[in-house]
Amino acid sequence: MSTGKKLFIKGNEAVAYGALAAGCKCFFGYPITPQNDIPEFMSKAMPKAGGQFVQAESEVAAANMLLGAAACGVRAMTSSSSPGVSLKQEAISYMAGSELPGVIVNMNRGGPGLGDIGPSQGDYFQSVKGGGHGDYRTLVLAPGNCQEAYDLTMLAFDLAYKYTNPVLILGDAILGQMKEPVSVGEPIAVDEAEGGDWKLTGAKGRPYRILKSLHLEEGSLAEHNLKLAAKYESMRGEVRFESFETKDAELVVVAYGSIGRIVKTVVRKLRQEGLKVGLFRPITLYPYPSAALVELAQEGKRFLTVEHNMGQMIEDVRLSLCGLADSAFFGFPPGNMPTPEDFEQPVRQALGR
Amino acid sequence: MSRVVFLKERCKGCLLCTQVCPKGIIALSGEMNQQGYKIVEVAPGKMEQCTGCASCAMICPDTVITVYKTVKPGQPVKPGEPGEEVARVNG
Amino acid sequence: MTEKIAFERPKPLADRATHYCPGCSHGIVHRLVAETLQDMDLVENTIAVSAIGCSVFLYNYIMVDTVEAPHGRAPAVATGVKRARPDRFVFTYQGDGDLASIGMAEIMHCANRGERVSVVFVNNTIYGMTGGQMAPTTLVGQKTTTCPSGRCRDSEGMPIRMAEIIASLGGTAYASRVAVDTIKHLNQAKKALRKAFEVQVNGLGFGFVEFLATCPTNWKMSSIDANKRIAEEMIPYFPLGDFKDVTTGKGVC
Hints:
The complex is a heterotrimer of chains A (353), B (91) and C (253).
Chain A: E1 6-10, H1 11-21, E2 26-29, H2 37-48, E3 52-55, H3 59-71, E4 76-80, H4 82-98, E5 102-108, H5 124-128, E6 139-141, H6 146-163, E7 166-172, H7 173-177, E8 179-183, E9 210-211, H8 220-234, E10 241-244, E11 251-254, H9 257-272, E12 277-282, E13 284-286, H10 290-298, E14 302-307, H11 313-321, E15 327-331, H12 340-351
Parallel strand pairs in A: 2-3, 2-4, 4-5, 5-7, 6-7, 11-12, 11-14, 14-15
Antiparallel strand pairs in A: 1-8, 6-13, 10-12
Chain B: E1 3-6, H1 16-20, E2 26-32, E3 38-42, H2 55-59, E4 65-71, E5 88-89
Antiparallel strand pairs in B: 1-4, 2-3
Chain C: E1 2-7, H1 26-39, E2 46-50, H2 58-61, E3 65-68, H3 74-84, E4 89-95, H4 96-102, H5 104-113, E5 118-123, H6 153-156, H7 162-167, E6 172-179, H8 183-201, E7 206-212, H9 216-219, H10 223-237, E8 241-245
Helix pairs in contact in C: 3-5, 4-5
């Protein structure tokens, strides 16, 4: 996906570069730590790319601006962190209901409430279970390093248009603020015809179009929800995950995002001691890689889910395993930066060594 | 003779048109449309008083009224005015 | 004898019955918008943003490309639309609950940024669709289902004068208040609407027209009495006229 030059950049910047490369032409943002690098970068980059940057009056407005740009079939994005993403849920629900494509980035910080500005995975439920009202789903991509932040942001735009649906990038303060080398490429040429059968352009030479989520006619909302459900089901093909050293593992640690990466370090260390431990890292949180987990369970493996919260994704792990196996859980509370040492003992304990 | 034509099924009987007609020729009729509204009419024999001012049509919230205005002989129908293309001889 | 059509339904206005109550002003404002779009040859270049309230069904009546905004957010959605398609004509159509209450932040900042969009604001001093609750524009003493003894200045504050507030913002090119109760006022209203559209087309800034309108059902009045209330009660508190017009210098500091 990425070709050309290598840059030493933060995860936040990698997201911004990924958006540029994907042909993003509108960015709507509002300041909140720890994602400010994204709007700051975009305020310079968007005009240069012939696009638009707006610092909105609120997160609510920024997300609704995204809705407006999306209605025109223009690749657009907004970014924020947890409290701000809560405010965006209104527009995300309307976008899902109106079937509009857009990319929303959440660099997860500690909560609930104002919490802190440090890393957390406390927004898992909000991201994958639908943070707004109504029966809808958003695709959720969880990058574990800066290169992935770039690649998955590019992918997010393609998926948003493929499914005409909002797509979430769920990172955290660790990913947003750490620097790594990232291969970046030139912006792709977005196909002018993208969204051609639904986008609003002014009704010249065709019947006029309405993009809405209100369905009052008898049976109309039921029909709409069934159509959406079929679409969400069809997203199953987009499942992505990383399996690391799972083949002969007795214990598979399930962890996503930057926590998955920290767990990987633990796995490497314990492997050197000959301990049979592996990592399963979901990259798509919706759709969840359930089938792959089931396969591991059928091979008789045991599981430990590690999260930077008090237990959210563990519910999806257990749902996936569906009684075939159970998963132990280790939750690291927000407010502190986890290190491999923090996870080593829980993994050893789950291994029984 | 200028005249007005009511799209009866759209009339909701709000009577706003009766208030703005400078000739006072629009009034509630005894008729009810399929929506169940008592509708207005120009009383029989009074249409010839219509000046084609279109006040009734302008205040009608339901676009019930189409207004035909008499063009005096010799008076050109101005280009660009509404209805230029449909100017026609009446009866 | 020759005759011409002096008045007919404008083409962008759908040939169908509306869901509005008898005497409701929305139908009049819809027609004025459709006529102005037609007169300015904007119909095929327009993207409309509908809001929440009785007028959410705008798209059933004005036949232009339309996106439906969440409650109060139409100016933010319109910002997104205009930024994405700067060459298109963009307008929002909002009621007083939508614009002056839940959407106050969005309208203020959209105007202040000088977004090249036009806003059609229908002020009937009440929440119509939800059944007649108090609005930010409800007049002092006016009874609604949530101020059954009448709006009280001490506890509910004074009705908000939006046209004046919008006129005070830097990005506003045109802000006006009009009424739809008389033929004279309707003619003024149409001129104001055209101007609010023109300032967008000419790239001068944000255009805003507040329409003083009726809600006979929730005011519990006949259409005729409701229409009289505009002159007797509304205009004394909500004066008509242009509060800002950059093309004449009026209201520009």
